[in-house]
């Protein structure tokens, strides 16, 4: 069946490797011309955890989860938000009218409103870079290798190997959206 | 999750409120027409007259709130069954057309530029077709917010019911306000039964609203963590006072008490309703403000809520 050869792009993020340098955010803003005051990705601080003197903090990078069943796509009244065959969720800027309904529907608050263009925007998995055979910008700039990008339907890809070897989680699984960012703690 | 920003602001609140008010006046007008078009002549006429106006203003406001208002036609290039906003925008367009035609049939003869053939039949048809559409407009505003699992404060089916009955109530209140401001009104006038019609309808609606709010509050306390946390915005959080004093006390309980008082002679004996323009204006204005504040609290409060891991 064709589903065998079908690509499904995803991220694997190793929390223990993230040092909160935010290079992924800066890299993304520069690569994608993200308007000032907005960001397509983030690093959430978790903690401090533990009891003194054994305290620790962890950092959790993230971006649009490019869900299997995207709540943003479901609510879009103009079909501006759509999901590609390879799982990448994109916004068609010609169809978007800037109603922001998708921003309400996203459980991860992954979208922002571009005031200048009057449309909603978000992470594209650097589709222009992947199609040119490159890594995404955030993977490229990450100095500790916390982020790995690839096709989870290909058992030989780096992401598949990481997932096969490690226990992993997704964020807000109760939302039922099937996010494509897997976290390894 | 983190960083909550209010993206839907005052304009959306105004729109939700005005669309509901239009649906309410339309439904009241059609109900009155089905009850007795002669006896409730003024309600039928006034309700139909007013109904296209607030929703049209509301839609204009809604367009202004879009990022790209001139591309609004993209809404009408598709029907997305899973998107309440898509269904709603179609309902709105149909509702504005139908309610405008119905309003036109009630114009005084000298205003009518075009004579409609079969006017009585057109009027009847707009009522029949328009009634479900108007109810759809009233209920969709609640589904629009309620069908968003990512905002637990909104994510209850009761929200659709609350918005619908609140919409009907603000519609009735609009007609009560006009009825109260009419200087021709007096207890002796034969139109007292119209006052009674509006009062009794509104008492039922407000009572239903109260019995929708009670389970919303109770259930939220007995529900999943995200929902329990989200109700904080009206139980100690930033919108507590607006909700309990503005919406519940001033918008529901006080007007309900006034309306029950106005109706009381009718309960005791077969007397007319109390007729006091001051009371009528007070209760109807309170209901209208309460309906607005309800949408304000829900729209803003919901955006502060989010799912919890």
How many DSSP-defined strands of chain B?
0
CATH A-level architecture of chain B: Up-down Bundle
Largest contact between protein chains? A-B, 36 and 36 residues
How many domain units of chain B? 1
Q: Major sheet of chain A: order of its strands?
A: 8-1-9
Q: How large, in whole angstroms, is the Cα Rg of chain A? A: 17 Å
Order of helices and strands of chain B: HHHHHHHHHH
CATH fold-level label of chain B: Formate dehydrogenase/DMSO reductase fold
- Net shape of chain A: globular
Distance between the termini of chain A: 34 Å
Q: In one word, what is the shape of chain B?
A: globular
What can you tell me about this protein's structure?
The complex is a heterodimer of chains A (about 180) and B (about 300). Chain A is an alpha+beta fold. Chain A has a single domain, classed as Alpha-Beta Plaits. Helices cover about 20% and strands about 25% of the residues of chain A. Chain A is built from seven helices and nine strands. Chain A has helices at about 1-5, 25-30, 70-75, 100-105, 125-130, 135-140, 160-165, and strands at about 10-15, 40-50, 55-65, 80-85, 90, 110-115, 120, 145-150, 180-185. In chain A, the strands form four sheets. Chain A has a three-stranded mixed β-sheet, covered by helices on one side. In chain A, a hairpin with a 5-residue loop joins strand 4 and strand 5. Chain A is globular, with a radius of gyration of 17 Å. Chain A starts with a helix and ends with a strand. The model of chain A has no long low-confidence stretch (mean pLDDT about 95). Chain B is an all-alpha fold and about 300 residues long. Chain B has one domain (about 10-305): Up-down Bundle (Formate dehydrogenase/DMSO reductase fold), CATH 1.20.1630.10. Helix content of chain B is about 70%, strand content about 0%. Chain B is built from ten helices and no strands. The model of chain B has no long low-confidence stretch (mean pLDDT about 90).
């Amino acid at each position: 069946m064709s589903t065998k050869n079908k690509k499904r792009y995803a991220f694997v993020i190793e929390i223990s490797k993230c040092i909160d340098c935010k290079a992924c955010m800066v890299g993304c803003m520069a690569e994608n011309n993200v308007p000032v005051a907005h960001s397509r990705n983030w690093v959430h601080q978790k903690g401090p955890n533990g009891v003194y003197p054994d305290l620790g903090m962890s950092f959790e990078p993230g971006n649009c989860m490019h869900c299997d069943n995207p709540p943003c796509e479901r609510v879009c009244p103009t079909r501006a938000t759509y999901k590609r065959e390879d799982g990448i969720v994109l916004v068609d800027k010609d169809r978007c009218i800037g109603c922001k309904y998708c921003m309400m529907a996203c459980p991860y608050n992954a979208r922002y409103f571009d005031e200048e263009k009057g449309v909603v925007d978000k992470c594209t998995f650097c589709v222009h870079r992947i199609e040119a055979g490159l890594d995404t910008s955030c993977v490229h700039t990450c100095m500790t290798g916390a982020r790995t990008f690839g096709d989870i339907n290909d058992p030989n890809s780096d992401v598949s190997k990481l997932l096969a070897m490690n226990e992993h989680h997704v964020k807000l699984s109760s939302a039922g959206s099937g996010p494509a960012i897997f976290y390894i703690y | 999750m983190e960083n909550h920003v209010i993206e839907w602001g005052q304009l959306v609140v105004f729109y939700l409120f005005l669309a509901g008010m239009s649906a309410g006046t339309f439904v009241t007008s059609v109900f009155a027409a089905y009850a007795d078009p002669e006896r409730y002549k003024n309600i039928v006429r006034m309700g139909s007259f007013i109904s296209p106006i607030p929703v049209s203003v509301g839609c204009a406001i809604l367009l202004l709130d879009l990022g790209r208002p001139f591309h609004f036609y993209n809404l009408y290039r598709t029907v997305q069954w899973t998107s309440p906003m898509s269904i709603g925008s179609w309902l709105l367009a149909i509702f504005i057309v139908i309610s405008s035609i119905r309003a036109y049939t009630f114009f005084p003869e000298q205003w009518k530029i075009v004579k409609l053939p079969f006017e009585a039949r057109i009027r009847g048809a707009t009522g029949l077709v328009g009634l479900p559409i108007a109810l759809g407009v009233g209920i969709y505003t609640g589904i629009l917010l309620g069908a968003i699992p990512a905002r637990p404060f909104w994510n209850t089916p009761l929200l659709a019911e609350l918005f619908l009955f609140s919409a009907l109530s603000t519609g009735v209140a609009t007609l009560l306000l006009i009825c109260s401001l009419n200087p021709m009104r007096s207890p002796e006038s034969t139109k007292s039964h119209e006052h009674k019609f509006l009062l009794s309808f509104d008492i039922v609606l407000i009572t239903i609203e109260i019995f929708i709010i009670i389970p919303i509050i109770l259930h939220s306390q007995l529900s999943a963590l995200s929902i329990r946390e989200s109700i904080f915005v009206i139980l100690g959080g930033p919108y507590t006072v607006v909700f309990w004093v503005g919406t519940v006390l001033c918008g529901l309980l006080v007007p309900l008490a006034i309306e029950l008082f106005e109706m009381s002679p009718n309960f005791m004996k077969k007397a007319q309703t109390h007729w006091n323009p001051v009371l009528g204006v007070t209760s109807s204005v309170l209901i209208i403000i309460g309906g607005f504040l309800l949408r304000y609290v829900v729209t803003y409060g919901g955006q502060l809520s989010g799912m919890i891991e």
